[in-house]
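Usage

Read records sequentially. Each one opens with the input sequence:
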Amino acid sequence: MQHKTQLTLSFLLSQVLLLACAEDLECIPGFQQKVFYIEQPFEFTEDQPVLNLVFDDCEGNNKLNFEVSNPDFKVEHDGSLVALKNVSEAGRALFVHARSEHAEDMAEVLIVGANEKRGALKEIFKIEGNLGIPRQKRAILATPILIPENQRPPFPRSVGKVIRSEGTEGAKFRLSGKGVDQDPKGIFRINEISGDVSVTRALDREAIANYELEVEVTDLSGKVIDGPVRLDISVIDQNDNRPMFKEGPYVGHVMEGSPTGTTVMRMTAFDADDSSTDNALLRYNIIKQTPTKPSPNMFYIDPEKGDIVTVVSPSMLDRETMETPKYELVIGAKDMGGLDVGLTETATATILIDDKNDHAPEFTKKEFQATVKEGVTGVIVNLTVGDRDDPATGAWRAVYTIINGNPGQSFEIHTNPETNEGMLSVVKPLDYEISAFHTLLIKVENEDPLVPEIAYGPSSTATVQITVKDVNEGPVFHPNPMTVTKQENIPIGSIVLTVNATDPDTLQHQTIRYSVYKDPAGWLEINPTNGTIGTTAILDRESPYVQDNIYTALFLAVDSGNPPATGTGTLHITLEDVNDNVPSLYPTLAKVCDDAKDLRVVVLGASDKDLHPNTDPFKFELNKQSGPEKLWRISKINNTHAQVVLLQNLKKANYNIPISVTDSGKPPLTNNTELKLQVCSCKKSRMDCSATDSLHISMTLILLSLFSLFFVQLNLSD
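and closes with the structure output:
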């Protein structure tokens, strides 16, 4: 009864539409009604008419046939839409394509719920709605046009017609808008006389789904005499796009032992077709699972949402018993709601079974043995463990701890990152004479905590027995380094220090002999039996072998073992300074012009190799000058410098000025030296000191020469 009511309603509506337009419209090829609304029944019954569609190509409908977008429906030759079987779900819309020798068209059947019915009927009777049916008579009637995408040639082909009820001599139709005179241009055109609208090429709904054009009527001069009226052209979707998986690669993770129904990941595809039609209604399924063990159906995918969930018991998701912890699923996405006529695309989902720490590490044996020589450091044994968890995770990586037997912190244990073994090392040299054996208790754990139902057992601890081997150790100096302070210049043979070296091998009762190992300046010797160090030369603090007042020498202590062992001791001698160096004067040469106005000849400086207080302040003095009158004088500037000044201009010559400089040591030391002064001729900023008129010799040198001659003559007379 419900189907009959719907059929009657649709028929009446179609008749109303035809009557409304009859007085204004001539025959328009195509469906006489392009949009139908029917209420969603509980079920479409097989062979029961749903509604009646009226198609007229205005040429007798020769070779007319219909195609329905849903394969569960067909259209009889009389235009009745019927179900081929009982259908409970038909989607939101059906599209009916009709084609004859002279025309083709598309009609849309919208399936609405009961609460949508009232609104749907209002849409049917809208004045400016999809059908474009006027309430009152209008000069231009432009009904909406529906065009299937991807039509085959030939082109252009007629797709609709615009009608003007009031004929005017010479009037012309004009079409404008996007797709006509706006980009993309030239898709549609209109016959200016008949009003036939045609399409010039195949349309792509995914590029442009709707065109809003305007129709006007103009006179011969081009003046608009009617319109514009809107003409809507809608592109009917075809299932011409496969679903696409855009977000790959798809990788999901699930923890081993997860409950049945645990969501692993979501796989979603995209379909460029009309989302309101079955062309873009996707359904998902698992096509293939690799590997197929322990079950060929480890996972399930929600056909509508694309959620992948586990379907096996937690015990079957045991990573340690699986052939591989990685599963690959070939996922199919099919449009048309998964029907056989739908287009399919596939993608691969990789699912990794993540490890949880459900296995405690266990030592491969309860006791390990190690042997190490005393005095040696480094790794002495590798402790091996087994763990069934994933080696790439903290559930496998081991952490070792010495829990007993290491009071002196002589041992450390670290994990080998590649093998997971525990590398037990000696970090402080062991002494055989103190202890020949050591016993360590070691435990192993994982970086990650165990799951609550698992605990560390006895196999997670092990004992290490360490045997220390005795070796002949070299004697040890006490202290080392040794330090002593001495004055420089102490007499040769002075005792510096008596060294003390002991043999760690107390059980072997060995003797020790001493020798000099490194004595850079050759100043020292050592008694080979009692270790007394004495001097063989004068200790000089100013020697280049002394650094920062410290002289360093090395000595050996050799025991009587077989083979003998050697120990090295370092001696630092801090040398105290004595005043044993006279000060030196600089510079020793000065030049001055014979007509100089500034008679300050030179600034003299003094230095001393000794240390304070055996250095400055220095005392500068002139020794006795030659000649009848004084020619120069010297004056102090500061503790280390003095100024030499001429008392008058001198002739061009070389002069030797006798100067003495005395340090502040106790007793003080004096250096008698001479400053060579060249008096030169200066012309045009050039100084000429080459040819001197005469050589003036200092009185000191003359007196020394006379004294030497007198001494020689005195010896001859004897």
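Summary fields computed downstream for this record:
- Helices lie at 2-22, 117-124, 699-717.
- Residues 2-22 form the longest helix (21 residues).
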